[in-house]
Amino acid sequence: MRSGAGVPTEGYREQAIFYYPLRGGVQALYDSVLEKVSSMGLRLVRGIEVREVRRVEDRWIVNGVFEGRKLISTIPLNELVEAMAAQEDIVKIAKHLDYNSLAVVGVALEGKAPDMHWVYVPDRSIAFHRYSWISNYSPYNTPDPNRYSSILVEISIPPAIEVNPERLVEESLEGLKKLGVISESGGEILFSKLWVHRYAYPLHTIQSNKARERLMEFIRESGVMVLGRWGTWRYLNTDKILEESLRLVTNINSR
Ligand SMILES: Cc1cc2nc3c(=O)[nH]c(=O)nc-3n(C[C@H](O)[C@H](O)[C@H](O)COP(=O)(O)OP(=O)(O)OC[C@H]3O[C@@H](n4cnc5c(N)ncnc54)[C@H](O)[C@@H]3O)c2cc1C
Questions:
Q1: What is the pTM of this model?
Q2: Which of 136, 143, 146, 204 has its CA 20 to 30 A from that of 223?
């Protein structure tokens, strides 16, 4: 509010000053946690979509295959209530949870990056709202930071809009050219890649917050534990998710 009114303000300090892994990008954080918990005996099963969550006596059964006494869900709240085959009014309420999707376009370039990290683009004629010189986050993010650089461009997309992958890449490159970030010929582009995140940003609208409140009540009554940005449908960042994960596990262990 203050910065919108033109009053100088520092904003979110944690978004301006943070640690970034020297090697392996942000994925290194998750790999490191996984390695630690795996060595403690965690069994991880990957690549299975949760379609059904049922309560049978004192057990939870997922997809008719996995069974447990306790269930912690981090999948999006709307998908959880569907998997639980909740009553019709609850499934209907879940459709009011608002969110935005996000497309990320990565562009690898020949040439050294300028001395910048991330840049906001408050311009409706440009498809993206932000781009980052991700190669400046660590000298190991390119094979040689004196010869190569890389950019990440972020485009918010309302979930109702159908994504056209080729068009998104084209629009990103057009925007970078228009801003003078890359040359008109684009001769320095080595390759580009697109990632689409269907669930990117939960939106805290009045309608969405109301729906969330009712769904959380339903979840509490059901006995399932929910965690994370999508599990609890709150705009949380990674630090907060890790903090809440530790708190939840400590609570369970102390019972
Ligand atoms: C593009 C982008 C940029 C971000 N940048 C930052 C940043 O700079 N700093 C920061 O701190 N945070 C950032 N975040 C947020 C951070 O990634 C999230 O806070 C964090 O990943 C949330 O963790 P989570 O476990 O709650 O959810 P997620 O990491 O989203 O995990 C939920 C998982 O559930 C899976 N899933 C969904 N439905 C089902 C189903 N039916 N069955 C099985 N699995 C399912 C999904 O595939 C996903 O793997 C960013 C997020 C995005 C999308």
A1: 0.89
A2: 204
